[in-house]
Each structure stands twice: as C-alpha cells, then as structure tokens.
C-alpha cells in the first residue's frame, strides 16, 4: 500500500466527527463478534454481525466519498487539478 501523502484539501470537521463516531460503533460491533467467537455461536448470528460491520464501513466510505465529491472534485477545474482528482478517485474506487 502506498504511503499516505499530505494533501492541501482536508476532510471537514463535521464529516470527520461523523466518520469517527460510526467507526467507533463498528469497532464495538467487531469486538462483539470476537466475543461471540469465544463461545459457541450460531453461524447465522455471526454472519449477521459481520454484515452489520460491513454496512457501517460502507456507510462511512459513502459519507467521506460524498464530502470529497462535493468539496474537492466539484472545484477541481477551478484549481487546475482535475486530472489528479480523477486519478485519485479511480485508484480508490478500484477497491470498492
């Protein structure tokens, strides 16, 4: 995985806080799954919890992506970095 590069465009504080809260919730669910696995859980119960964590992560990704599109991609032409923005998004979206 390439090193994270500093970028002059940053995630808004409100979006950051929302993402942090959602990730903390997902972390709690993930810890719950780990506890479940210490016992003798029913497979479907584990799968439901895994699905909930995946959904939470997807939601955080959507929130961050929307913010990026609204605040950075929409103004890329004005800044003159449209190609860079498109390349960055194509790189990220290939993992979705």
Q: What is the number of strand segments? A: 0
Biggest sheet architecture? none
How many structural domains in the coordinates? 1
CATH topology: Methane Monooxygenase Hydroxylase, Chain G, domain 1
**Second rung of CATH, namely the architecture:** Up-down Bundle
Radius of gyration over all CA atoms, rounded: 17 Å
Query: Could you give me the name of the CATH homologous superfamily?
Result: Metal-sensitive repressor, helix protomer
**Overall average pLDDT:** 87
Low-confidence parts, pLDDT < 50 over ≥5 residues? none
Anisotropy-based shape: elongated
Count of DSSP-assigned helices = 4
Name the helix and strand elements from N-terminus to C-terminus, one letter apiece. HHHH
What would your notes on this structure say?
By secondary structure, the chain is mainly alpha-helical. It has a single domain, classed as Up-down Bundle (Methane Monooxygenase Hydroxylase, Chain G, domain 1). About 75% of the residues lie in helices and about 0% in strands. It contains four helices and no strands. Helix 1 runs antiparallel to helix 2. The longest helix has about 30 residues.
Keywords, separated by commas or semicolons:
single chain; 96 residues; mainly alpha; Methane Monooxygenase Hydroxylase, Chain G, domain 1; 4 helices; elongated
SSE blueprint and pairings:
Layout: H1 13-38, H2 43-73, H3 76-79, H4 82-93
Helix pairs in contact: 1-2
Kindly summarize this structure in a few lines.
The protein is mostly helical and 96 residues long. Helices cover 76% and strands 0% of the residues. The chain has a single domain, classed as Methane Monooxygenase Hydroxylase, Chain G, domain 1, CATH 1.20.58.
């Amino acid at each position: 995985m390439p090193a994270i590069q500093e970028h002059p465009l940053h995630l808004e504080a409100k979006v950051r806080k929302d993402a942090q809260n959602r990730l903390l919730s997902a972390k709690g669910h993930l810890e719950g799954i780990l506890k479940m696995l210490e016992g003798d859980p029913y497979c479907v119960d584990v799968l439901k919890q895994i699905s909930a964590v995946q959904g939470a992560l997807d939601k955080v990704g959507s929130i961050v992506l929307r913010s990026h599109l609204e605040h950075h991609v929409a103004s890329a032409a004005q800044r003159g970095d449209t190609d860079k923005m498109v390349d960055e998004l194509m790189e990220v979206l290939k993992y979705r």
